[in-house]
């Protein structure tokens, strides 16, 4: 029996509808699960309430440091944090929706957590 695994590219969009949403945690657990499998690249775009992960120390996403995983925080929403002189964590990149759209076009799977 042949055991072949397909190497995938993922685009993940995190857009929680409220601050109490479990979308951020569910997305993190999903990424941890697929990290154990073979993948080529994972692009994670944080939108809405999820952008706070790029700025707050308690966010588990700051532990994700892998050249095959890109973490993007929406530039429009991040602007609010930046005007308060908060610094974005080094593992995150501030990006626009164009970056998210580009990642969806390159991905084999697009997944949204809300």
Task: Quote the average pLDDT.
Answer: 92
Tally of individual helices: 3
Helix vs. strand class? alpha/beta
Quaternary organization: single chain
**What is the alpha-carbon Rg in Å?**
14 Å
- Main-sheet strand order equals 4-3-2-1-5
Task: Based on Cα principal axes, name the global outline.
Answer: globular
Gap between N and C termini: 39 Å
Classify the helix fraction into a percent range.
25-40%
Strand count, sense and closure of the main sheet? 5 strands, parallel
Q: What's the total count of β strands?
A: 5
Order of helices and strands: EHEEHEHE
List segments where confidence is low: pLDDT < 50 over at least 5 consecutive residues.
none
Strand content is: 25-35%
Give a summary of the structure in a few sentences.
With 114 residues, this protein is α/β, with parallel strands linked by helices.
């Amino acid at each position: 029996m042949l055991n072949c695994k397909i190497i995938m590219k993922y685009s993940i969009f995190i857009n929680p509808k409220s601050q109490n949403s479990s979308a951020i945690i569910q997305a993190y657990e999903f990424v941890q699960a697929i990290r154990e499998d073979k993948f080529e690249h994972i692009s994670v775009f944080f939108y809405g309430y999820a952008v706070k992960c790029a700025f707050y120390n308690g966010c588990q996403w700051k532990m994700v440091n892998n050249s095959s995983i890109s973490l993007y925080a929406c530039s429009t929403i991040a602007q609010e944090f930046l005007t308060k002189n908060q610094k974005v964590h080094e593992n995150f990149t501030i990006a626009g929706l164009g970056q998210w759209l580009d990642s969806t076009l390159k991905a084999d799977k697009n997944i949204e957590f809300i």
